[in-house]
Amino acid sequence: MAGQGRLRKRFERAQAEGDLPETAKPDALAAFVMTVTQGIAVQAKAGLSRAMLEAVAEQALATWPAANAPSSRPRRPRRKLRPSVRGATNYPLPQPYLPGGYARRA
User: Fold this and answer.
1) Percent of the chain with pLDDT over 70
2) d(CA 88, CA 94)
3) CA separation for the pair 12, 9 (Å, rounded)
4) Domain assignment present for 63
5) Is the pTM for the entire model greater than 0.85?
6) What is the per-residue pLDDT for 54?
7) Does 77 fall in a domain?
8) Number of domains in the chain
9) What is the pLDDT of residue 98?
C-alpha cells in the first residue's frame, strides 16, 4: 500500500527527530493506523454511531507511544465539530440561525 509506505517513512522521520521513542516500530505503527482507519470506515458504513466511532479513535490514540522528549512545537487546539445534519446537537448555533437572530432595520 502506497499510503502505508508513506506513513512508515514519516514515522521513521518522527523517530529520528525524537517525536517517537526509539522502541517504536514505524512499520507496525503504519499498519496500525491503516487498520484502524479502514476499520472505522467499515464500521461507519455499517451504521455505527458517531459517538462510538469517536470513542474507537480515542482508544486507538490512547495506545500511541509517548515521545522521548517533549515536542518543541505547541499542540494545535482540537477543532470543534460542526453540528450534525441528522439530529440535535449541544453546539450553539451562529446568531443568524436563531429565531429573531437578524437585526431589524429601522
Assistant:
1) 61
2) 15
3) 5
4) yes
5) no
6) 94
7) no
8) 1
9) 44
Report yes or no on 47 lying in a domain. yes
| The predicted structure's pLDDT at residue 106 | 46
pLDDT at 75 over 60: no
Domain coverage including residue 21: 1-68
d(CA 11, CA 69): 15
For residues 34 and 1, the answer to whether their CB atoms sit within 8 Å is yes
Residue 2: closest CA among 29, 22, 30, 28: 30
Q: What is the amino acid identity at position 22?
A: E
**pLDDT computed for residue 2 by the predictor:** 80
Residue 60 belongs to some domain of the structure? yes
Q: Which residues are CB-contacts of 80 (< 8 A; sequence separation ≥ 6)?
A: 91
> Cα dihedral angle (43, 87, 80, 3), rounded to 10 degrees?
20
